[in-house]
Amino acid sequence: MTEISERAVVRRLNDRLGFGPAPGDLEAGVEATVRRLLGPTTDAAAAAIAPPTGLEPPSKPKNQTPKTTKRNPNASEQGGAERDADAKKAARRERAAQERKLTVWWLDRMVASRTAGERLTWFWHGHFATSNQKVRNAAWMLAQNQTQRRLALGRFGNLAQAMIVDNAMIRWLDGQRNRKGSPNENLAREFMELFTLGIGHYQEADVQQGARCLTGWALGAKGATFQRRRFDSGTKTVLGKSGDFDAKGFAALTLTQPASAGFVVGRLWFRLVSATPPPTATIARLSAAYGSSRDVRSLLTAMVAEPGFKDPASSLVKQPVEWTVGLLRALGLHPGKLDEKEQTKLLAGLRGMGQLPYRPPSVGGWPAGASWLTTSSGVTRLQLAQQLAKKADLSTVDNATDRLAAVGALLGVDNWTERTRSALAALKDPAQLTAVAACAPEYVVSG
Fold first, then answer.
1. What is the pLDDT of residue 41?
2. Span 54-68, mean pLDDT?
């Protein structure tokens, strides 16, 4: 098999386990890059960005019935309705402001990140996809995000067990509606189908019995609490095992299935290496590295050492968030330091390209590959690139003798195709040159 160059491997490592190279990253060797990204070092740069505060949901207005008047006996009803409508609008605005604050904070962390921890947090957000559109609680979304970050490179079993009793996940998949005598199967089904096993590796009876394991959880203002009276105790038979299993016991059962390791390996491979599934022998090697401890860091270390990771054909289209964060990093811009108007444009650009953190379209997460290359998303991508390029210091491009080489160095692209070179050569304004270059296939696709 033909392999890409060492420099190209370094670029690929930064793209797949990070959000693109920072200045100087491409000069490091493969081993040094793997150590930085997957070593035990804490991501101090990202950790220095303090999480937002004040994310508690807006309080619900108290019901007050005003007195009627002789002149207009319906005044109280009309006035109360107007106040209720105003209160609901104010609550919506407050929730939107909180989600905006949370999103900008995470984008800041992504830009600053120096290890694979933030990139894997982003991966797990798409894997255990949960949307604030339904959760409507920024504090719970932050808590889920922090849990995924803390466990991102650790043991998958710990992460899976944390997610199955997570506040946001329970609301997202209606876990609070699942009680003894009135089962709701959403969480049990999706947990097996999308999170741990995959289609075809469980039966309907497993869903039904799994739902019984997940009973007992209620959601209040302070989050999920286990209420014994709502729990369906007694023997359940799930995936061939019988016992009085609870939520974490159910999660543990799914991970003991032979299909689980291959499923998780395949999901990580699909998002971080190639849309082409790995050969059976590769899955076996990676599953062995994953091991009985389900260690994600060990799995990723083995994955980037696979010949398939260095295969020229293993290219991936960057997701809109990955592309945007990489461009912000290359341009030296930090979302939290942009003014409110620019932040609004940034988030609108992500929304226009179809991907906004904390807003996956379904429990299946976001699409991949060519689905990001539509005409409308391409127009939005260029508009966002132009907006960001205008805010950046592009003196290194403007003053360069070879501007195409300079913009390539800025974006981490070594070579342009003749077609791209021809298109870029006609652009004189450094901001426009940079914006168009950022929308070229050489940058939009992680080669």
1. 86
2. 68
